[in-house]
Design a protein that fits this description.
- The structure is a single chain.
- By secondary structure, the protein is of the alpha+beta class.
- The protein is about 40% helix and about 20% strand.
- The chain has 28 helices and 29 strands.
- The strands form six sheets. The protein has a seven-stranded mixed sheet with strand order 11-12-10-13-9-15-14.
- A hairpin with a 3-residue loop joins strand 1 (about 15-20) and strand 2.
- Helix 23 crosses helix 24 and helix 25 (about 835-845) packs antiparallel against helix 27 (about 875-885).
- The longest helix is centred in the middle third of the chain and has 27 residues, at about 545-575.
- The two termini are about 40 Å apart.
- The model is unreliable at about 1-15 (pLDDT under 50).
């Protein structure tokens, strides 16, 4: 696997230049303008006359690396505080409330040297939303009362991550960097690091804002349906008052690792059953070479997974489960090149052998891998990628572009990831030659490793010591193994990029239906892309009748995917993507990307299905991966486990994790072989062929699928999952989760499935979401995870309230939810039609949102096919029902919720709260996932 920013290349076809000198894809019909305001603020305007969602983002070139030593987490804390009201818009959470009411969403994140704020919204409310965001940077309130309160939210966020290995390993790894570099420090913030013992915390926030939140240190991207001139007027009106200030000094100027932190072995002990070997090399920054991409070239070769690759060599020996190669860069400071491998138990014993083989492969690249043809092939793929660049949604677009504007010239903001200007072997070698034993950080992550240190914030055990002399000597003397090779030419790069005739606007239609098979087709080239989407759903009762079958369908999918990987990896590199997924309904084959060679790839996948014959060692390796995944699920956060429990309770074919684990432990290779045949004894195939495929081509692929999968004896009806409904019950499920936080989920479900009820409760969920967050998180500070909203289930309307809290037990949390709902009766009694209209339009805008790209359209249609709503226009009917709703309807919906009929509570008591548990007296309580076994099954 390859993952590196800017790994793609530029187009050979003439790109288009827009006003403001922004080079854009020939497929991009949006208009761009780059400008700098008088105060020094960098701005990119994007005009898209067809959009129904607008968006804006502000990226401030400051992050946790700029935290004062005595205020760790201050940059992150300030990010939180800016949402707490401004002088012009003083209501706490007023910004979020306005955006949610108008069909949008907002968020922010703090990185090492950047902080990014973004939102999207229905286009008719874009200007006032933009003005609200601008005030974050002009006159935030930074109310001292909320300074004290919001510290608790930051602390809760920190404690939420306490048992998450991603954070634990990240912080332990950083702790092994240069103590003089900010990389080595804690960066989230806590009550301790943000204490106000000196009475200066508020002043520290204000000083930080005044120093770094200045116009010359910020970039803004706005995306709207208005003309560029109108957008420019709006930006000037809203952002011209951002203080120009003095541009702050941002240069760190220190090496992230000193001599003590390279040529080292680092051991880290995770909570999960995880085994990882990461080989990383600190390098000079590659920012100035973004048009040449030396690390992009190396990442592609090292991360290749085709025949003769490092990945295949190590996986065939049973030493690794995966390999990823990627580079990262802190512009102007340093880069790192990483090779990350997930290890098998046997691989953990071979860490130094694997490291030596990686070094052997790096030497092979020096000797044989410096090939202009490889570079040109990557450039060809990128030419296609840029020429046929698909739109992302507006929010993703603005947030991503704003983060680039500090480091890239205007003309390359859109093109940078696709530029491979020239093959420069000397430059590539200069980076490769720094990948030496003396510059190596060998990080091993596994349980049971010897350690002698503890990272203080997450209490992660680790150690760091110099590499053994014998290993260093071996790494300096690479060996040759003829099984390792450099990637061969890619046969999957698209040749035929013509658009087929017969494209139509509309919905998919059934073009073939017979026993065991239904084929849907929509020839659609309205996005101007030579891309296709193919879905083949093979449904079978054998997917989930028993816990063992739930396990075996996952193992079957894993082994089938594995058998295709060497052959199929080049296809993915060339933009011809495929996946094989498995669920409780069966197995699905999905293809996306360039349509040219999709029929060929589909047939190769079907041939792999027909000739499926896994080796026993491969089975044991994939079984170990599945067992580890099931065991590690206990380390998910309580609210995520609670949400998963909702599905386990509703679907009898979804066993709980302990049951699945027991079943997985018992499954044998012989059973899996038998299952692979039994699965196809009674199947139904449903296909969707969409995009740049003619009806004739779709019929040919349908015939191909029928030929490979169906016979005279195995054709069956479509299999859909049976499920339980709550009816009028009021039940509570108490889960045993090992975590300091308590968790409460209150879920309400209605028996009706009419469009009016679906509209009514979708709107109710939106009306309740922001005040729920405001009361329970912002005001009561119960925890970081607090949210509410609509949660439909199998066409049945529903509402969900979720809280994970370090402060209060679930009984107390449920009482707070009840108090909140009671308090909303008065708010709803005074709700005017004008106030409701804002929310109505927000929901209607989301329901009728245009598809941003072909993948999004494909997903929407497939969702309709999977749910059985195959007229595909039900969203229009629900939108019409939303238009008819009145304040009285919303009051009635809230009153019905308060009857507590069709209510399910899922909860867990945190370790400090277990003594507060009392058995339920007035309602049914369960402690297992068979709580609904007495309820009738629905089909």
């Amino acid at each position: 696997m390859v993952s590196i920013a800017g790994c793609s290349m530029t187009t050979e076809r003439e790109a288009l230049v827009t006003p403001g000198d922004v080079i854009k894809s020939p497929a991009d019909d949006r208009d761009y303008r780059y400008l700098t305001l008088d105060n020094g603020l960098k701005v990119l305007l994007i005009s898209d006359a067809d959009t129904d969602k607008s968006a804006a983002a502000v990226d401030v070139n400051v992050g946790s690396y700029q935290d004062p030593d005595d205020r760790l987490g201050l940059a992150h804390f300030l990010e939180h505080m800016l949402f707490m009201g401004t002088e012009k818009y003083p209501d706490v959470d007023g910004y979020s409330e306005f955006i949610r009411a108008n069909g949008g969403g907002s968020n922010a994140y703090t990185a090492d040297v950047r902080t990014n704020y973004y939102f999207d919204i229905n286009s008719d409310q874009f200007q006032p939303a933009m003005d609200r965001l601008a005030q974050f940077f002009i006159a935030p309130k930074l109310d001292p009362e909320y300074v004290e309160r919001e510290k608790n939210a930051v602390d809760s966020e920190y404690r939420l991550h306490a048992r998450e290995d991603g954070w634990r390993l990240f912080m332990a790894t950083n702790k092994t960097s240069n103590p003089e570099h900010p990389k080595s420090r804690f960066n989230i913030g806590s009550l301790d690091t943000l204490n106000n013992d000196d009475g200066q915390l508020w002043q520290s926030l204000k000083d930080f804002h005044e120093k770094y939140y200045v116009a010359s240190n910020m970039s803004v991207v706005v995306y709207g349906k208005e003309s560029l001139d109108t957008l420019e007027q709006w930006v000037n009106a809203s952002f011209s008052e951002v203080p120009s200030g003095t541009h702050p000094e941002l240069k760190i100027g220190k090496a992230p690792y000193s001599d003590d932190e390279v040529q080292v072995r680092i051991n880290i002990v995770p909570l999960k059953d995880t085994r990882v070997l990461s080989l990383s090399f600190p390098l000079p920054s590659t920012q100035e070479y973004y048009q040449l991409k030396p690390l992009g070239y190396l990442a592609r070769v090292v991360g290749y997974e085709g025949k003769g690759s490092l990945h295949s060599y190590l996986k065939d020996r049973g030493w690794i489960d995966s390999l990823a190669s990627y580079g990262s860069d802190l512009p102007g400071e340093y880069s790192e090149f990483n090779i990350r491998m997930e290890l098998t138990p046997e691989g953990l014993k071979k860490v130094d052998d694997i490291t030596a083989i990686v070094f052997d492969y790096l030497d092979l690249i020096r000797q044989e891998g410096m090939q202009a043809s490889l570079y040109q092939e990557s450039k060809q793929v990128a030419e296609l990628g840029f020429r046929f660049q698909e739109d992302r949604n507006p929010q993703q677009t603005v947030s991503g572009l704003a983060s680039r504007m500090h480091y890239l010239p205007a003309e390359h903001l859109l093109e940078a990831n696709y530029i491979y200007e020239a093959y420069d072997p000397e430059l590539i070698l200069s980076y490769l030659n720094k990948m030496t034993p003396e510059n190596l950080r060998q990080v091993v992550i596994a349980q049971g490793l010897p350690t002698d240190k503890v990272e203080p914030y997450f209490e992660t055990a680790y150690s760091i010591e110099k590499l053994p002399a014998a290993l260093v000597k071996r790494l300096r003397t690479p060996e040759v193994d003829r099984e390792l090779t450099i990637p061969e030419p890619n046969p999957f790069i698209a040749d035929n990029l013509d658009l087929v005739e017969g494209s139509r606007i509309g919905n998919p239609k059934v073009i073939l239906e017979k026993s065991g098979l239904r084929l849907w087709n929509l020839t659609d080239t309205s996005f101007g892309m030579p891309r296709g989407n193919i879905r083949v759903m093979i449904s079978s009762e054998e997917a989930s009748k028993t816990p063992a079958e739930n396990v075996m369908v996952q193992l079957y999918k894993a082994l089938l995917s594995r058998s295709l990987n060497e052959y199929g990896y080049p296809a993915k590199e060339a933009g011809l993507n495929y996946s094989i997924t498995a669920g409780r309904r069966g197995v699905m084959i999905s293809l996306s990307g360039y349509s040219d060679k999709q029929p060929l790839l589909l047939e190769d996948i079907l041939e792999a299905v027909k000739t499926f014959n896994p080796q026993e060692n491969a089975f044991e390796q994939e079984k170990a991966v599945l067992l580890r995944s099931l065991k590690n699920k206990q380390f998910h956060t309580p609210y995520r486990l609670g949400l998963d429990a909702l599905s386990q309770l509703a679907y009898p074919s979804y066993p709980d994790d302990a049951t699945l684990l027991k079943a997985a432990e018992k499954v044998t290779w012989k059973q899996l072989q038998q299952y692979a045949n039994a699965f196809y004894q009674h199947i139904h195939v449903e296909m969707l062929v969409l995009g740049n495929h003619s009806e004739a081509s779709a019929l040919q692929m349908g015939a191909m699928v029928e030929r490979y999968l169906l016979s005279d004896t195995n054709r069956s009806d479509r299999f859909d999952l049976p499920y339980h409904l709550l009816g009028d019950t009021d039940r509570v499920v108490t889960m045993d989760i090992e975590h300091d936080d308590s968790m409460l989920i209150s879920y309400y479900q209605l028996p009706e499935t009419g469009n009016r009820e679906r509209a009514q409760y979708a709107l109710l969920g939106r009306l309740l979401a922001n005040p729920f967050f405001n009361v329970l998180r912002t005001e009561q500070q119960l925890g970081y995870v607090v949210f509410a909203g609509p949660r439909p289930f199998e066409k049945h309307p529903g509402i969900i309230f979720v809280v994970q809290s370090p402060k209060l037990d679930p009984t107390g949390l449920e009482g707070r939810v009840e108090q909140f709902l009671q308090s909303q009766k008065a708010a709803f009694a005074s709700l005017t039609n004008e106030e409701l209209e804002q929310y109505r339009q927000g929901l209607i805008g989301d329901l009728l949102k245009k598809d941003d790209n072909q993948d999004e359209r494909n997903n929407r249609f497939w969702q309709g096919i999977a749910s059985g709503e195959t007229d595909f226009d039900n969203r229009e009917r629900i939108a019409e029902a939303v238009r008819q709703l009145t304040p009285a309807d919303m009051q009635a919906a809230l009153d019905r919720l308060l009857e507590n009929k069709g209510k399910l509570v899922v909860r867990s008591f945190g370790e400090p709260h277990k003594s507060a548990y009392q058995a339920e007296g007035s309602r049914m309580e369960c402690t297992s996932m068979d709580c609904f076994s007495d309820l009738p099954l629905q089909h």
